[in-house]
Amino acid sequence: MSSSPLRRTALDALHRSLGATMTDFAGWDMPLRYGSERDEHIAVRTGAGLFDLSHMGEITVTGPEAARLLDHALVGNIGSVGVGRARYTMICQADGGILDDLIVYRLGEREYMVVANASNAQVVLDALVERSAGFDAEVRDDRDAYALIAVQGPESPGILKSLTDADLDGLKYYAGLPGTVAGVPALIARTGYTGEDGFELFVAPEHAEKLWQALTEAGAPAGLVPCGLSCRDTLRLEAGMPLYGHELTTSLTPFDAGLGRVVKFEKEGDFVGRTALLEAAERAAQNPPRVLVGLVAEGRRVPRAGYAVVAGGEVIGEVTSGAPSPTLGRPIAMAYVDAAHSAPGTAGVAVDIRGSHEPYEVVALPFYKRRK
Amino acid sequence: MSNPQQLRYSKEHEWLSAAEDGVSTVGITEHAANALGDIVFVQLPEVGDTVSAGETCGELESTKSVSDLYSPVSGEVTEVNEDVVNDPSLVNTAPFEGGWLFRVRVSEEPADLLTADEYTEFSGS
């Protein structure tokens, strides 16, 4: 634990007035839950939930060669992202290890916003600055320039529509447009980390409270509730979405994590990690080490990150994330397991839960997919 | 919240009822239940097991963590709450009532159990 004081978001006082249980997350004092995390989870699946995500790290990249810089620094084909669109991508080390997973929004012909995980924001910023040498582009730390409020869930389009004139129907998944919400200037993005339809609203910190209150009022009839990081974690786990530090680390490449599709070898020019990633792609195709799978419990004991996955008395893998799934009503986990045991339906797989081998079913990810 | 006056409390956040015919009921406090969050699994001792004051005798799992359950007294378990095994959320909704965990024939009681007022001060709630 760091001894430096925790950072507080612009909505800190509001969270406390709502009775939130707070937690240290990547050096930020963040809401873990307001009431029952299970109820918050279900609200997002069936109605809507409101999240403070102001700990996420925004980095702006501008200039004539902004696209070329990002194509060099990241593994994705960023130059091909249209203005007003967004892309899920990764930044890797020269050895192919994942430094972070990112969403990159193209705000203009020569302007991008890179959104990094709170725990990695400084690492990503430093890497982008270092990799910008020789490019006619500027990398700017905008972490303090934005508060980030997400409204997620099937009712979120209706709720947001009541507060903005922006063309939400024309706003596709993984797109973003500048607009005004509840009288507040915002970048409105149709992105999220819950497996539901939803929006992420980037606003100036001084406007965060006003926007939060407006969304709370507009969403109340639709069942919108404030939601903490605890349900955000179970929501993303059900949706099979990786979390940095769990499914993604510097000792894994995107191919090891089953996310090789984010690496675009066909893009123009060299990029950091290219040579190592070509080898990683070949290894994953021919002789994969461990494979990321889903596990569903037959019993009720919950697997946690770091627990061993076993079969026939041998350790065959390790749990990276685990939680009780409110939607499935049973504990679920993501785990890296030996390829021989990775096929859905593989028999005889168990998780060592504090000495007891609890049977688990191997399933394909995700655990949950929303109906479109 | 308020901690019932007629109960006594351990510093591990268990409560203990006054003995009837030598048998006391054990549960966890509302403070503990709130701190754990939604409880999804409880493992209780079995009827006939001997439990010892201050030692683990089961576990409570919530969404985010697993915690040991400590017995506030020594004795023999006479009954466990099957309702809580089937529906662990009872511990959150009624920690002092329907969410009780087990009953124990007390053989020895530690001297340092707290009164309701002492526990309220100790736990800050």
UniProtKB/TrEMBL annotation, chain B:
The modification N6-lipoyllysine is found at residue 64. PROSITE patterns: BIOTINYL_LIPOYL, LIPOYL. InterPro entries: 2-oxoA_DH_lipoyl-BS, Biotin_lipoyl, GCV_H, GCV_H/Fam206, GCV_H_sub, Single_hybrid_motif. Binds 1 lipoyl cofactor covalently. It holds the Pfam family GCV_H. CDD domains: GCS_H. Its cofactor is (R)-lipoate. It comes from the Bacteria. Keywords: Lipoyl. Residues 23-105 form the Lipoyl-binding domain. PANTHER family: GLYCINE CLEAVAGE SYSTEM H PROTEIN (PTHR11715), GLYCINE CLEAVAGE SYSTEM H PROTEIN-RELATED (PTHR11715:SF3). The glycine cleavage system is composed of four proteins: P, T, L and H. Belongs to the GcvH family. The glycine cleavage system catalyzes the degradation of glycine. The H protein shuttles the methylamine group of glycine from the P protein to the T protein. This is Glycine cleavage system H protein. It comes from Streptomyces glomeratus. The gene is gcvH.
